[in-house]
Amino acid sequence: MRTDSIIISTPDNLQLAKKIANRLDIKLQEVDMQIFSDGESKIRMNSVSNKKCIIIHSTHPPTDQHLMQLFMILYKCNKEAVRDIYIVCPYLAYSRQDKEFIQGEVVSIDVVGKILQCIGARKLVTFDIHNQDVLSKLPIDTDNISAIPLLADYMKNYTRLNDPLVISPDNGGIDRAKQLANILHINMSSLTKVRDRITGNVQTRYEGNISVSHRDIIIIDDIISTGNSIINAAKILKDLGAEKLFVLCTHALLLEDAVQRLLNAGINDIIATNSTQNNFAKVDLSSTLSEYIDTFITHAHS
Ligand code: R5P
Fold first, then answer.
1. Residue 118 is part of a domain; what is its CATH number?
2. What range does the domain containing 198 cover?
3. Which of 92, 170, 203, 221 to mutate to test the pocket of ligand 1 (most atoms within 8 A of CB)?
4. Sign of the C-alpha dihedral computed for residues 199, 201, 207 and 210 taken in this order
5. Of 97, 133, 224, 255, which is best to mutate to test ligand 1, by the most ligand atoms within 8 angstroms of its C-beta?
6. What is the mean pLDDT of residues 99-128?
7. Which of 125, 48, 73, 149 is nearest to 296 (CA)?
8. Tell me, what's the pLDDT at 85?
């Protein structure tokens, strides 16, 4: 067993953390977590001094609660003067508010980055951050890994599709769709999604010149939250004659009744990673993360 390091995980991230701890032969410490009725978290954890700490903690909904838990764990590690603290945050919340879309809006990802920096974060790794440009603006060293090759592998190994086409639900996701289509050696196209920044209302249309009729479609997005973006896409694609609809995403937040509404909209299957644990987390990030963690703890200085 590698005794110079420890993996720290909260109950929500335990499945992924266990897999990584087993692969790397590193002790896993599950923090003792209590949630009070007002939503506040209480955390207790054993001493981690003299260890390289790898904190595995996603910040999926309830977002603010999970962020606060991350801050608390990091604070505790830092208080014990741990020099090498690595944050593995497969889903990094607030990365969609990456600019002042309307004058006066707070750029929340800047706030998250600043707090993490203040309480001792040096290195963070995440998956498929909403906008890559955020990485250079964060005040801590952040790596972003793409889960698209893993999602593509799943499609190759477990699905049989008829004349498949990759579709991005919006122009912002075109690069993602291109990457997937290249790996699968198939074509891609994109819908156009326009969001009214005041009301939040979304309008989606298809202006592409590749026919979707009688084809199986792979819709790829980074996040499914309410499911509305995918449901709008599904309506359009079905109206245009698409056959089966598969949804691939890295972060399946699937709020409230999103799953039922997605199925009602004609989605045949949802395939997500285990960046957050749920019934659709069919693509495992543990192997990629283990390789990544192995490299940086091996080269760390303490
Ligand atoms: C936004 O541009 C993102 O890439 C996702 O499309 C969006 O966050 C999905 O949210 P929802 O499921 O609520 O439509």
1. 3.40.50.2020
2. 148-283
3. 221
4. positive
5. 224
6. 95
7. 125
8. 94
Shared domain for 135 and 105, answered yes or no, is yes
pLDDT one-digit tens code per residue, 57-86: 999 999 999 999 999 999 999 999 888 999
Rg for the chain, CA atoms, rounded: 20
Q: Are 9 and 101 in a shared domain? A: yes
Token match 């109206």: residue? Answer: 239
Q: How many domains does the chain have?
A: 2
Residue 113 shares a structural domain with residue 208:
no
- 180, 223: one domain: yes
- The verdict on 178 and 114 lying in the same domain is no
Q: With beta carbons less than 8 A apart as the criterion, state whether 79 and 43 touch.
A: no
- Within its chain, how far is the Cα of 15 from the centroid? 16
Atom of ligand 1 nearest to the CA of 169: 6
Q: Annotated active-site positions, please?
A: 193
Nearest CA to ligand 1 atom 9: 224
DSSP state, residue 31: P
- Span 136-145, pLDDT tens digits: 989 999 999 9
pLDDT of residue 98: 87
Determine how many CB atoms are found less than 10 A away from the CB of residue 149.
12
